[in-house]
Amino acid sequence: MRWVVQNETELLDIVKVIAPLLKVGDVVALYGTLGVGKTTFVRALVKYLTQQDIDVPSPTFTLLQMYDTPNFELYHFDFYRLKHPEEAYEIGIEDAFENGVSMIEWPDKIGALLPRKHKSLSFEILPDNSRVIEAENFK
Ligand SMILES: Nc1ncnc2c1ncn2[C@@H]1O[C@H](COP(=O)(O)OP(=O)(O)OP(=O)(O)O)[C@@H](O)[C@H]1O
Ligand SMILES: [Mg+2]
Fold first, then answer.
1. Which residue blocks in the chain are alpha helix, DSSP H?
2. Per-residue pLDDT tens digits for 72-83
3. What residues have a C-beta under 5 A from ligand 2, the ion?
4. Domain segments of the chain as ranges
5. Class of domain 2-136
6. Rounded to the nearest whole angstrom, what is the distance from the C-alpha of residue 25 to the centroid of ligand 1?
7. Disulfide-capable partner of 30 in 38, 64, 91, 101 (CB 3.0 to 4.6 Å)?
8. Does pLDDT of 70 surpass 90?
């Protein structure tokens, strides 16, 4: 699946497709450069899943934010500041990957610790500032 979105409001259309496909044990790698919109997507997803206008800060410094949603706990990781993949164990990836749904910014930072059968969302910025979002392994 592939979409082009002109603004943040249009993310809701994608979120409505992706959200029902998420289930406990899913690990979703969010690929794309600085400022491409990974956190913004998770923010839209959390708001849709919870149906609440809750605060969804970037996990840049905390590395992890967690949200209760009706069907699963959503773990939002940002591994940009990780120095070694093993640090991810200290943050709790094992529990998250098994018992929740994990959304991961900068997944390459954990190397081989990223489960082989992960789903992915890849983001790109077009010259007109719109975003291309491509989803893989969702069924
Ligand atoms: N779909 C979109 N359309 C237009 N602007 C967007 C869209 N998504 C995000 N933005 C804007 O891009 C900026 C950066 O977004 P965001 O923080 O989500 O990026 P990020 O990929 O999480 O970056 P980082 O890797 O630094 O965490 C924000 O100011 C946001 O408003
Ligand atoms: Mg971010």
1. 11-18, 38-50, 87-91, 93-99
2. 999 999 999 999
3. 38-39, 58, 105
4. 2-136
5. alpha beta
6. 26
7. 38
8. yes
